[in-house]
Specification:
Length: 170
């Protein structure tokens, strides 16, 4: 399996993959399309997992902000992630996330935040965000599913405030 940057020729395949992985609904496929045409899109952070010349997984990481009264910090949000239904639970999702985090580090981003399943992401190093002074008000979510990964040591000490998902997410 190879994890690499998505290219434009694969947009339809990635659309179909998200559609299938999310139970034949278009919401996440459309979200990917909106993020790709938004300011927060970082091409190197749209990753695909390829196996035998077909795309079996996709991960999109993009820019958002954490804001307090004085400052606005650029952070990364993880959404969506999708693995082909017949290829799930083989480590593909984990490999995509690990490579995504490595790339975030290389690009100088300090935090990755997400809303996700509390039994999946903690094994990859994510932890509940609210105890670190991070807040999410745009979506009504419980403490255990709003999570953060500290890419740069010390970032959680200095970045506090409200996570603001960009317009593309709505
Ligand atoms: C979530 C998803 C990306 C994980 O990818 P994956 O390649 O299947 O995951 P991995 O192989 O790395 O990890 C497998 C483990 O995750 C668990 N897992 C998979 N999907 C899960 C989910 N939605 N919630 C909780 N746990 C999940 C599996 O049970 C397995 O656990 P085990 O190791 O204890 O057996 C994939 O299952 C998927 O595409 N699901 C449908 C779309 C979705 O829900 N995306 C996430 C929301 S943005």
């Amino acid at each position: 399996m190879i994890i690499r940057t998505e290219n434009e020729r694969e947009y339809q395949e990635v659309y179909d993959l998200n559609y299938q992985a999310f139970g034949n609904r278009e919401d996440e496929s459309k979200l990917v399309e909106r993020i790709r045409t938004s300011e927060g899109f970082v091409p190197e952070l749209s990753l695909v997992a390829e196996m035998d010349d077909r795309i079996v997984g996709h991960l999109l990481l993009s820019e958002a902000t954490v804001e307090d009264q004085e400052e606005s910090h650029t952070v990364i949000v993880l959404a969506p992630i999708a693995v082909k239904p017949d290829m799930q639970a083989r480590g593909i999702g984990s490999s995509l996330i690990q490579e995504g985090i490595k790339r975030c580090k290389d690009l100088g981003y300090e935090l990755v935040l997400l809303i996700g399943h509390p039994s999946y992401y903690p094994r990859l190093g994510f932890q509940p965000a609210r105890p670190f002074g991070l807040e999410l008000l745009q979506f009504e979510v419980s403490d255990d599913i709003f999570m953060v990964y500290e890419v740069k040591e010390g970032a959680l000490l200095k970045m506090k405030g409200e996570l603001k998902y960009p317009e593309a997410f709505f």
